[in-house]
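Translate sequence into structure tokens.
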Amino acid sequence: MSNQSLATAATHVVAQYSAAGKTLNHAYRATVERLLDSAKTRFVSALEARSIPMVNDQVKSQLLNAQDVLAGFMLKGVQTAYGQADQAIELIAKRANSGIEKVASTVARVESSFEIANLEVVRAVNAPIASVATQIADKVAEGAKALEARMGVVAEEVEVAVAAKPARRAARKAA
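Result follows.
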């Protein structure tokens, strides 16, 4: 495995971990957005379905507006954090790749300037490690994508399970 092949393997590993981080970040954001939307829907249906003493239409409207403001505030915070996390992932990947390229070019210059043959032995020793690191990075990226897909399914299942529970039972147990 040549110096360029080791650098390519390292760059591939960085790219896969970067993709996995972005995938998990996206799954988190989508799950929070789905959760907030579900909570809003349940709040609206619970507020409209019950007649609450001393709560007229104006108070209900104010409660719905307050819930919208709170949900919007939470969503904005999540979106800001999501954007910052994505930027951090990109910056880390960019700097790591820059470092890999600098090391590869330095090794190539040293090897050509001093005609060092021992670097080939180092490369031969590191080739299996680089291959395993590449395979692990691929598995991590695949796992992140599978987790993202599963998060969507789990969130929908939880939403259905929560909606099926009667609210009055919980109130009676607490009393």
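Note: Residues 14-99+136-174 form one domain.
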